[in-house]
Design a protein that fits this description.
The complex is a heterodimer of chains A (158) and B (626). Chain A has 158 residues and is of the alpha+beta class. In chain A, 46% of the residues lie in helices and 11% in strands. Chain A has seven helices and four strands, in the order ααααβααβββα. In chain A, strands 2-1-3-4 form a four-stranded mixed beta sheet, covered by helices on one side. In chain A, strand 3 and strand 4 form a beta hairpin. The mean pLDDT of chain A is 90. With 626 residues, chain B is of the alpha/beta class. Chain B folds into five domains: 101 residues, 3-Layer(aba) Sandwich (Glutaredoxin), CATH 3.40.30.10; 211 residues, Rossmann fold (3-Layer(aba) Sandwich), CATH 3.40.50.11540; 84 residues, Roll (Ubiquitin-like (UB roll)); 88 residues, NADH-ubiquinone oxidoreductase 51kDa subunit, iron-sulphur binding domain (de novo design (two linked rop proteins)); 55 residues, Alpha-Beta Plaits. In chain B, helix 9 packs across helix 12 and helix 21 packs across helix 23. Chain B is globular, with a radius of gyration of 27 Å. The N and C termini of chain B lie far apart (66 Å). Classes of the chains: A alpha+beta (158), B alpha/beta (626). At the A-B interface, helix 2, helix 4, helix 5 and strand 4 of A face helix 3, strand 11, strand 15 and helix 19 of B.
Chain lengths: 158, 626
């Protein structure tokens, strides 16, 4: 397996994190969160690395990665646009907001633009129901979003 | 904070710190107090609307006006009035400003603090009365509320353990470990009648009793903070606004069942709550209120955070336990119950955030006090997350037995834009839709079950005449199909079939047979699924079929969506108001509008993709949707 120098550093960072854990039992989800934070996604070689370091079967790691919606095995764009599809946002029209993002970026939910700039996704409730419909771009929360606001939001990231 | 060595010492510190909250609780004329405090909401909702910037600007304006020794400004937890955030509250006169912008900070200091004039444009206007209200305690949103679980939210700074102790924090834990036996603690819980606030409604004292009776060398307490029910955000607010109360209650539970370790399982979507918990845990450890020999006694207890990763089913306790152990969050059959064999096969008690938040006040005020509120079977209060088409979106804590009408119309301020109420959905994806005729039922665990819904975690989504009930049922089914873990067949396959039938109906392809199939399949899934997720997943379908059958029939027989939501069933039609300007024909992406200049245009229904572009472009509103 060929690892670039940059990747080497990332694996090193992950290994250091694993070494700081006082108790490795049941730590796989925590380690995968960290790994996704470092690598941006969880390719096969990262999953195998985690399995080796925690001394658990790779199948268990893969099982966990594929079960939880938070983990992704595909690289994501620089900016991840997440439209909240929780009930409060849905009844206030977040579905139309999602469609507008898909139209403007010319990709479907779950996909990434060819220039790797944007990924569109949806999430279930960030708990800011007072601001419904809510859109998150990376960690920034936009509230009371209407389809006509989509251009303005995207403009913040060009 | 220095380490506290005994309960006596804690009590002394509490007496010393208590005046910290005086200005906030005095509720007097602003001219009668020396000190003025400004509090700004630091919850997720208000933070998203720049409450950080408002805080910085207020600080700046205080310095500029030379008021630093008289006026303080700090963050608090969620006020619960999220719709109108960011919220700024001035004490001691209790003035409540809504929708504050960073540029308003200067005016607040110069007008309100220096000149003593309330700024009326920032006050809240009662939607029903069209009048502004100055003080928090005069607002109809707060008047009917009774805050126990949320008692500290919007009052104390959640990042300072001193303020929690000033507000009687950790006194309940001190009382328990110095003067009560574990059996007495459990009996107190049983007598109070407290039931699980996460959805199941199981008596908390009984749960602890089972866990205590199980013999083992190690036991665990788990706090279920995996608030996955979309539209419910009370757990987030408690964790963000009063994290210490959860930690204190977990320690009390640990003492009662004989556990020395606790885990908080929290969803990764709540970064701010995680941050606040981390601060609270480290402050509590430093003060000797967590860790070895708490307050100098023999009792040791520590709390650790475990992260979820986006799986609704992990709210189910056995699934949650598997997730903490580092596996896929799939549920297993009970028995064995977690109280017998839970985390790492040790006896475990899993309780929800809101349940925990009720425990310290029950210990301090006694079980009788708690049991005096509520209905015959459901005691105390319940927090509801009011959202959807309602004027006052926010968190509402009311005694059990309050009616839906009081919550929606008195506290919630009625339906948005004066529209007509259609239904209220309670209990999230596991609950059902309740129609207008049931608005006067006093709500508790049993009464909601009886009308085909459930308490769930307390989500309450209001819908108006623009919401299609078939579409809502489909929305919930999409959610459950997505979140079903796939372990048992009825849930994995049955719900998918339910969703397919609903999709067919919303596309205008439904038949009478589909209605029968829906009913039968829904009941089979309820009876045969392994865990709570599958057993309750058909509730949205069954309840909408029960109360809104006319809408299903309209979709199937008349091929019409009465609310005008289901796109395939919509028809755009040009009326004789048309002036023949050709604008719509040029806008139409499907080229399905024909007509000459200055003559009436026509839409080809077969080609129309129902995008609505023509309707928006028409200058004379000649295009209608039916």
């Amino acid at each position: 397996m060929c690892k670039s120098v940059l990747n080497e550093e990332k694996f090193h960072e992950l290994e250091e994190f694993i070494n700081t854990l006082s108790n490795k039992k049941g730590a796989v989800i925590e380690v995968l969160h960290k790994a996704q934070h470092i690598f941006g996604y969880l390719p096969e070689e990262v999953q195998i690395f985690v399995a080796e370091k925690l001394n658990i079967p790779a199948s268990q790691v893969f099982g966990v990665v594929s079960f939880y919606s938070y983990f992704t095995t595909e690289p994501r764009g620089e900016f991840v646009v997440n439209v909240c599809m929780g009930t409060a946002c849905f009844v206030r029209g977040s579905g139309n907001v999602l469609t507008e993002f898909e139209k403007k970026l010319n990709i479907k939910s779950g996909q990434t633009t060819p220039d790797s700039k944007f990924t569109i996704g949806s999430l279930r409730c960030v708990g800011a129901c007072g601001l419904a419909p809510v859109v998150m771009v990376n960690d920034k929360v936009y509230g009371n979003v209407k389809p006509e606001d989509v251009d303005k939001i995207l403009a913040d990231y060009y | 904070m220095n380490r506290i060595h005994s309960f006596e010492e804690l009590k002394n510190i509490h007496t010393e710190l208590k005046p910290l909250l005086d200005v906030r609780k005095h509720n007097v004329d602003i001219n009668k107090e020396e000190k003025i405090e400004i509090h700004i909401c630091g919850g997720t909702g208000c933070k998203a609307s720049q409450s950080d910037k408002i805080l910085a600007n207020l600080d700046e304006a205080i310095k500029v006006n030379g008021l630093s020794n008289k006026v303080t400004v700090s963050i608090t937890g969620c006020f619960g009035f999220c719709e109108k955030g960011p919220i700024v509250k001035i004490s001691p006169d209790n003035v409540f400003y809504v929708k504050v912008k960073p540029e308003d900070a200067k005016e607040i200091i110069e007008e309100h603090i220096v000149n003593r004039n309330v700024i009326s444009r920032l006050l809240y206007e009662e939607p029903t009365l069209k009048e502004t209200v100055k003080r928090q305690d005069e607002m109809s949103f707060y008047k009917k509320q009774h805050r126990i679980a949320l008692r500290n939210c919007g009052v104390i700074n959640p990042e300072k353990i001193e303020e929690y102790i000033a507000s009687e924090g950790y006194l309940a834990l001190g009382k328990v470990i110095t003067s009560m036996t574990p059996d007495e603690v459990i009996q107190t819980m049983i007598d109070s009648g407290l039931r699980g606030r996460g959805g199941g409604g199981f008596p908390t004292g009984q749960k602890w009793l089972f866990a205590k009776k199980s013999k083992a060398n190690q036991k665990y307490i788990i706090c279920n903070a995996d608030e996955g029910d979309p539209g419910a955000f009370m757990d987030r607010s408690v964790l963000e606004g009063d994290p210490n109360t959860v930690i204190e209650a977990m320690a009390i539970a640990g003492y009662a069942i004989g556990a020395s370790e606790g885990y908080i399982y929290i969803r990764a979507e709540y970064p701010l709550a995680i941050e606040r918990l981390k601060i609270a845990i480290s402050e509590a450890r430093e003060a000797g209120l967590l860790g070895k020999n708490i307050m100098g006694t023999d009792f040791s207890f520590d709390v650790f955070i475990k992260y979820g990763a986006g799986a609704f089913v992990c709210g189910e306790e056995t699934a949650l336990i598997h997730s903490i152990e580092g596996f896929r969050g799939e549920p297993t059959t009970k028995p064995p119950f977690p109280a017998v064999s839970g985390l790492w096969e040790k006896p475990t008690s899993v309780n929800n955030v809101e349940t925990f938040a009720n425990i310290p006040p029950i210990i301090l005020n006694g079980p009788k006090w708690f049991a005096s509120m509520g209905t015959k079977t459901s005691k105390g209060t319940k927090v509801f997350a009011l959202a959807g088409k309602i004027n006052n979106v926010g968190l509402v804590e009311v005694p059990m037995g309050t009616t839906l009408r009081e919550i929606i119309y008195e506290i919630g301020g009625g339906i948005k834009d004066g529209r007509k109420f259609k239904a209220v959905q309670t209990g999230g994806p596991s609950g059902g839709c309740i129609p207008a005729e049931n608005l006067d039922i006093p709500i508790d665990y049993e009464s909601l079950n009886a009308i085909g819904s459930m308490m769930g975690s307390g989500g309450m989504i209001v819908m108006d005449e623009d919401n299609c009930m078939v579409d809502i049922a489909k929305f919930y089914l999409e959610f459950t199909v997505d979140e079903s873990c796939g372990k048992c067949t009825p849930c994995r396959i049955g719900n998918k079939r339910l969703l397919e039938i609903l999709t067919k109906i919303t596309e205008g392809k439904g038949t009478d047979q589909d209605l029968e199939d829906l009913q039968e399949l829904a009941e089979t899934i309820k009876d045969t699924s392994l865990c709570g997720l599958g057993q309750t997943a058909p509730n949205p379908v069954l309840s909408t079929m029960k109360y809104f059958m006319d809408e299903y029939v309209a979709h199937i027989k008349e091929k019409r969506c009465p609310a005008g939501v289901c796109k395939s069933l919509l028809q755009y039609h040009i009326t004789d108001k048309c002036i023949g300007c050709t604008k719509c024909a040029r806008q139409c992406p499907a080229n399905c509008i024909s007509g000459k200049v200055k003559t009436m245009h026509v839409i080809d229904e077969d080609k129309c993709i129902k995008c609505g572009a023509c309707q928006t472009s028409c200058p004379v509103k000649a295009i209608i949707r039916r």
